[in-house]
Amino acid sequence: MSKQFKGIGASEGIAVAKALVLAEDNIEIKKTKVSNIDAEISRIENAISKTIKDLDNLKNTTLEKLGPEKAAIFDSHKEIASDPAIKDEIINLIKSESICAEFAAQQVTNNFYEMFASMDDPYFKERSADVKDVATRIIKHILGIAIVDLSTISEEVIIVAEDLTPSQTAQLNKQFVKGFATNIGGRTSHAAIMARSLEIPAVLGLKKITTDVKNGEVFALNGITGIVELDLTDSIKANYEKLAKEFAELKAELQKFKNLLSKTADGQEKLIEANIGSPSDVETVIENGGEGVGLFRSEFLYMDNDHFPTEEEQYTAYKQVMDAMKGKLVVIRTLDIGGDKKLSYFEFPHEMNPFLGYRAVRFTLDRKDIFKDQLRALLRASAHGELGIMFPMIATVDEFKRAKAIVEECKEELRKEKIAFNENVQVGMMVEIPAAAVNADKFSKYADFFSIGTNDLIQYSIAADRMSENVSYLYQPLNPAILKLIDLTIKGAHKNNKWVGMCGEMAGDIQALPLLLGMGLDAFSMSATSMLRARALMSKITMKEAEELANKALATDDTPEVIELVDAFLATK
Ligand SMILES: C=C(OP(=O)(O)O)C(=O)O
Ligand SMILES: [Mg+2]
Questions:
Q1: Is 503 a catalytic site residue?
Q2: N or C of the chain: less Cβ packing under 10 Å?
Q3: pLDDT-based confidence at 188, cuts 50/70/90?
Q4: 432 C-alpha to center of ligand 1: Å?
């Protein structure tokens, strides 16, 4: 019998290969008293300069292999290695306690590590891994321990390790490293980000995979499901090999769609776009052939900050996205804060139901000062491409009109200040509250476009918290009641010749795609890695068959019937 372990699928793909288990760096360091203090100081100084040299080399190879953004990790490593505070503390400890350099280095870097690791903020938690990586390198240099170079691997393996440090991942050669499995780490750890850039399948957070699998043992890893399987029988192994081959073929097939327009089989053009949370996400959008950004969740600019970002700070971020998208439509949503999205520097009033409370446009309409900083930044960014400004959580026509009036007020200010902006910038709204969906034909008299936010629309329509496991059985995008609200929204927009997109997760759902096409959705905005699959499927569907399917689905009584219809339809594609 084979054995299965479940971890976090952090980078898609399937691999079957021999395990290369990396031994943990358990370097034993004794507290040794020394008499020659100067000699110890030169040992630490030499080790730090060797470390900095290594990091320069790693930065250069990463720059060549993965580009500037990934190489930047080694700048932060270099900052740690050359931090005078760390070096001075080590030297002071050597002097005050007359101890050896390695012990002092371990002591000081451990303090920094623990300080970062104990912070609540995930950013700093992850920086602790950087401190550890740099510290290990310095200590190995002090002790003259060889630093394993993973770039020399010359047979096909899956690397198994406690964690993979950024410097280790940067050395991996895709030709031989077929995957990696680690005890710790999650989807946002460095190892995960690197794995996705290198397109190496990875399963992280497997807890004790370094002891579960033996060095040299052939095992399988599925980066999509997060499953790792050991003690493979011949037939299970063959099945994984088949899946790996199919995955590789599918990926190659999808690449063909990268530079194609999104079209149905009968030539109806649509837009397939991406949702992003920060300017750095744009790179992946372009790599995956995105035809625009359908949702930039601007709240991340506010959440990753210690103050409300200024007009200038926001303008810089928005302009960066506009420039990178080179004239393709970029829809930026104004601040959608409140609910579960909190700010460290602002206290929201305590409410019984924060998701139904003071949030998003309800907050910005109340805090015109904060709203205007954002709107001015957005208008200024509109001069650099094709921008859509979008308001979240609009519930009434009056709210939309009030928000739009503030845009007009900002435009007037900018005109007076002779600051450039696009006079015809589109101003639209999210449809994520049932009241807006039901009356979409009224809203579309005023809004230039809609984007359906199904993540919230579903939870508000079915009264099922999108976060609750207990009621997840109710949270069904394919519920015919949800389809009816989507249909009303699309018809309501088209009645006044406005376009309508979708930026909730449902837009990237393969089962939903034929139905959305059939109902007439114009733009589909999803995670960047789902775009090519959606474009490929779209190319196989005619509008006529999609419309017939949607009509049948709208006439059903409940979700299982819709699923049955869609699955039968997809089986023919
Ligand atoms: C896209 C949406 O917004 P968010 O997930 O940010 O609430 C939505 O509600 O569908
Ligand atoms: Mg929402």
A1: yes
A2: N
A3: low
A4: 8
Domains in the chain and their CATH numbers? 3-22+151-236 (3.50.30.10), 37-143 (1.10.274.10), 262-542 (3.20.20.60)
Measuring from atom 5 of ligand 1, which residue has the nearest CA? Answer: 455
What is the distance between the alpha carbons of residues 340 and 495, in angstroms, rounded to a whole number? Answer: 35
User: Binding site membership for phosphoenolpyruvate: which residues?
Assistant: 297, 333, 455-456, 466
Q: What's the CA angle centered on 526, arms 436 and 300, to 5 degrees?
A: 80
In angstroms, the CA 402 to CA 372 distance is 13
Q: Contact at 8 Å (CB) between 186 and 10? A: yes
Amino acid at 333: R
453 alpha carbon – ligand 2 mean position (Å): 5
SS3 content of the chain, % helix, strand, coil (to 5): 50, 15, 35
Q: 121-177 pLDDT, tens per residue?
A: 666 777 787 888 899 899 989 988 877 778 778 899 999 998 887 678 777 888 899
Question: Order of strands, edge to edge, in the sheet holding 14-21?
Answer: 3-6, 227-230, 218-222, 14-21, 157-161, 177-182, 202-204, 8-11
Q: Which protein residue has the closest C-alpha to ligand 1 atom 2?
A: 453
pLDDT tens readout for residues 226-262 = 999 999 999 999 999 999 999 989 888 999 999 999 9
- Which residues form the pocket of ligand 1, taking CB atoms under 6 Å from any ligand atom? 295, 297, 336, 432, 453-456, 503-504
Cα separations in angstroms, 314 against 286, 373, 374, 413: 22, 8, 7, 18
> How many angstroms separate the Cα of 531 from the Cα of each of 16, 99, 471?
27, 58, 29
According to the model, what pLDDT value does residue 25 have? 67
Separation between Cα atoms, residue 261 and residue 127, nearest integer Å = 40
The alpha carbon torsion through 341, 344, 350, 353 (nearest 10 deg) reads 10
* Beta strands at 14-21 and 499-502: parallel, antiparallel or unpaired: unpaired
